[in-house]
Amino acid sequence: MDTRDVVDLQVFMLAAGATGLLLGALGSTRMELLGRNANLVRAIEEAPLGIALLEHHSDRLSVAFANPTFLRFTPDAVPILLRLQQIPEFEGDVPSSGRTLHWTVKPASASPPGETLIAIVRDVTEQRRREHAEQHQRRMVAIGEIAGGMAHELNNLLHPIINLSQQARKDAVTKPERLSKALSIIEDSARGSARLVRQVLSFARNEEEIGGGTELVAALRDSIALLTSTLPPTFAIMLTHDVPAALVNLTRTEVTQIVTNLVVNALDATDQRGHVTLHVGQPANGSVTVTVKDDGPGISAEDAERIMEPFFTTKPHGRGTGLGLAVVRDLLLRRNGSIKLTTQAPQGACFVLSIQSTAE
């Protein structure tokens, strides 16, 4: 290894945050320094991550160093290199030959600004596949949370259809006025059943919205209507809003999934005897705020630290999966949004959702 190799490697070590190793090596003999650098080179060469140093020249970006994994992952890195010529740093997934590669590119701290970049590439194909499978499973969990209530409500709608149909057969000749009233009730119940089924199908199919986004207030109103039919009469959902409409970067299905998880949590927190309020704020700074507040006992400071973790739950065994808030957070993060808890016990739980606006 010549002197230039040693210098290049020291630059890489600084950029990668290995300053402690380098500072320790500076106090050693030249042979010790070369030995440590050789070990680091071997570790980089055999790393399962793609690692490279990229150098800016006057009109192009070239690869100054690349380990074998980087070369294997990126047989044709020209498109991404062209993109990196225009921006100082980049992080994101890039499809490549049937795989998904996650690129992280940042300026090397030991070089003049913009001259040297450090790139790390990971194969996240299997990870993304698992994430998609988990998202599907979470959808099934959300559907399961309301399936029992839907079945009960559908059964209530079918009772008058069955009973009054039997009564109508008897009254067809002798009591025409009573027959007319019975048929009206049958029709209303049948339409209500069909509406409930359509709402469930729309939710289950995960239909994507086409166009400039989803109108949030209307989507919330429809989601609440769907949930209300499954809730006990001792629990209420209220919707208020500062604006009559707001376009957001969510599908109607995602809105329903978010509302379902938050309302089910509030239902359990209030022991099915309380209310939850959803308030849509005025759009600002490219986002719309939705505040979801219940009148339950609230969440302790200790539990608040873990409340968003998957499978963490404060509910008794058998009454919750611990996925509700994790599902909501995941949905919002994928759409560049966020959720945070803003209160602690005993004030009731209050969550603030920030959703990206798609308004012009």
From TrEMBL:
Keywords: Kinase, Membrane, Phosphoprotein, Plasmid, Transferase, Transmembrane, Transmembrane helix. Pfam families: HATPase_c, HisKA. It catalyses: ATP + protein L-histidine = ADP + protein N-phospho-L-histidine. PROSITE patterns: HIS_KIN (PS50109). It comes from the Bacteria. The chain crosses the membrane at residues 6-26. Its EC number is 2.7.13.3. InterPro entries: HATPase_C_sf, HATPase_dom, His_kinase_dom, HisK_dim/P_dom, HisK_dim/P_sf, Sig_transdc_His_kin-like_C. GO terms for molecular function: phosphorelay sensor kinase activity. Residues 149-359 form the Histidine kinase domain. It is an enzyme of class 2 (transferase). This is histidine kinase. It comes from Azospirillum baldaniorum.
